[in-house]
């Protein structure tokens, strides 16, 4: 609770509850996004609702968000048309937290197996399972011509419900 302050600087005599923000600070949101979460990418699709599907991603605080998709995929076609996308990452257990980020695509290039794909598989599956995943899928048609897409975060929306419990 805090006292309301009138324009002349005096207290108004009433108490008002200070709304507690559940938003994450910049360091909190960037650390959260850099942690391992399966993201949900959302891409505009003219005449339809946006495409929203799970995706692996990488992010380093202060940097660009990176995703990989096949050049023949619907995601790739929509990304190149839209020029931007949103990604939401969340926890799956209480107290829930999420970060939603949106921004323009700043670069695309062919994904490299060792520079891009293997580290991503290691991030999500661990070294042993990640290496097995790479070996089992490297020649799969749906993974042919994988593209690396880099997005610069512009807009953030965050919630950390754990803050409500810490205030108690």
Write the layout of secondary structure elements.
Layout (H helix, E strand, L loop, with lengths): L1 E4 L5 E6 L9 H9 L4 E5 L7 E5 L1 E3 L5 E6 L3 H9 L1 E7 L6 E14 L2 H13 L1 H11 L8 E6 L3 E6 L1 H5 L2
Antiparallel strand pairs: 1-2, 3-4, 3-7, 5-6, 6-9, 7-8, 8-9, 8-10
Describe the structure.
This protein is of the alpha+beta class. It has a single domain, classed as Roll (Pnp Oxidase, Chain A), CATH 2.30.110.10. It is built from 5 helices and 10 strands; from the N terminus they run ββαββββαββααββα. The strands form 2 sheets. Strands 3, 4, 5, 6, 7, 8, 9 and 10 form an 8-stranded antiparallel sheet that branches. It has a two-stranded antiparallel sheet with strand order 1-2. Helix 3 crosses helix 4. The radius of gyration is 21 Å and the shape is globular. The chain starts with a strand and ends with a helix. The N terminus is likely disordered.
Top keywords for this entry?
168 residues, alpha+beta, Pnp Oxidase, Chain A, eight-stranded antiparallel sheet, two-stranded antiparallel ribbon, globular
């Amino acid at each position: 609770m805090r006292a309301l302050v009138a324009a002349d600087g005096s207290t108004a005599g009433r108490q008002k509850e200070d709304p507690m923000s559940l938003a994450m600070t910049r360091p909190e949101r960037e650390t959260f996004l850099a942690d391992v979460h399966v993201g949900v990418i959302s891409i505009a699709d003219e005449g339809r609702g946006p495409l929203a599907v799970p995706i692996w991603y990488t992010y380093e605080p202060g940097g660009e968000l990176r995703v990989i998709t096949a050049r023949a995929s619907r995601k790739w076609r929509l990304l190149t048309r839209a020029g931007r996308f949103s990604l939401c990452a969340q926890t799956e257990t209480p107290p829930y937290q999420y970060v939603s980020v949106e921004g323009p695509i700043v670069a695309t290039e062919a994904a490299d197996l060792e520079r891009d794909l293997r580290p991503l598989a290691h991030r999500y599956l661990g070294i042993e399972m990640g290496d097995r995943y790479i070996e089992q899928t490297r020649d799969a048609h749906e993974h042919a011509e994988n593209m690396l897409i880099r997005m610069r975060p512009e807009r953030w929306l965050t919630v950390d419900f754990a803050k409500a419990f810490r205030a108690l």
